[in-house]
Design brief:
By secondary structure, this protein is α/β, with parallel strands linked by helices. The chain has 8 helices and 15 strands. It starts with a strand and ends with a strand.
Length: 319
């Protein structure tokens, strides 16, 4: 088969569409013949050498795919060869085939095509596991999403709105603000000109920025507020005023999906299938896809992501 390999840490040019060995399914796994995958910020970090893959994981980028089951490993039930699926991966999605634990498989929602389904698993699982399973966002609460135009951001706006939250998001342009409002955001904040603190307090904040945003986020939280940090685009260090945490009973969570165990991921996927897929099928939540490129043009897709002009997901498709 072919896959996108990383020749060495560096820019998009280090991505190479090349012949590699086919994967084989371990017990409890299936092989997916990949139709499409989707970019995530973690892919860029992995390419740059800033996000080492977990031990035993495929070295190729790609945290989600859609396709058809091509083979079953031992001890797999409930799935058949030929089933159309999408899946959350620990890696290996930029390829023609990938092996994945059966617990990380999802059906393809009735309202969406097989190619587009590749952009659902990572964003849906990230949003649901963090704003619901971790932060327990409730109807009537105020939710702030930093970076509302990305794959996670566009999904978070919609899911939070479907849950009955008042949704606020930061964006980087008037065009992105318009799209965020179309998706359900009640308030959009241009982070280049406006201070998100003016629109708080917030009950839940989902932060993909990290760094100094830590000390900016905490004062804007309401009593019993919850901050969930899932990205480090602004750096690895920030400061905390512990008095604010103590007296307002604030909780700060740092999470990632990739390093969770297969059992933990399966628990998240089961909830996504049960709770989020009906939202997609009834139209209250939709995939936002910006561009679709051939898998062999992964380098160009990475350039587009790093340029930051996209809204929603960038997809890569196998011929």
């Amino acid at each position: 088969m072919k896959a996108v390999s990383i020749k060495e840490p560096g820019g998009p040019e280090v991505l190479e569409w090349t012949e590699v060995e086919d994967p084989t399914p371990a017990s409890g796994e299936v092989i997916i013949d990949v139709v499409a995958t989707a970019l995530n910020r973690a892919d860029v970090m992995q390419r740059m050498g800033l996000y080492p893959v977990p031990p035993g994981t495929s070295p190729y980028p790609g945290l989600e795919v859609s396709g058809r089951i091509g083979a079953l490993g031992e001890n797999v039930s409930g799935w058949q060869v030929g089933d159309e699926v999408c899946a959350l991966l620990t890696g290996g999605g930029y390829a023609q085939k990938v092996s994945v634990p059966a617990g990380q498989l999802l059906t393809v929602p009735k309202s969406i095509g097989l190619v587009e389904a590749a952009g659902l698993p990572e964003a849906a699982a990230t949003v649901w596991s963090n704003i619901v399973m971790t932060a327990a966002l409730k109807e009537g609460e105020t939710f702030l999403m930093h970076g509302g135009a990305g794959g996670v951001g566009t999904m978070a706006i919609q899911i939070a709105k479907a849950l009955g939250a008042h949704v606020v998001t930061t964006v980087g342009s008037p065009e992105k603000a318009t799209r965020a409002r179309e998706l359900g955001a009640d308030v959009t904040i241009d982070h280049r000109r406006q201070d998100f603190a003016e629109y708080g307090p917030y009950d839940v904040i989902l932060d993909v920025i990290g760094g100094q945003y830590l000390e900016r986020n905490v004062p804007t939280l309401a009593a019993d507020g919850r901050l969930v940090i899932i990205g480090l685009q602004n750096g690895l260090e920030g400061q905390l005023n512990l008095a604010e945490l103590v007296f307002k009973r604030i909780s700060v969570h740092g999470t990632t999906l990739r390093t969770r165990s297969a059992a933990q991921k399966a628990a998240v996927i089961a909830e996504v299938q049960k709770e989020v897929w009906p939202m997609i099928e009834n139209g209250s939540v939709q995939l936002v896809a910006d561009k679709t490129l051939p898998m062999a043009e992964a380098a160009e897709a990475h350039r587009l992501m790093e340029a930051g002009g996209h809204v929603g997901k960038i997809l890569l498709v196998n011929d």
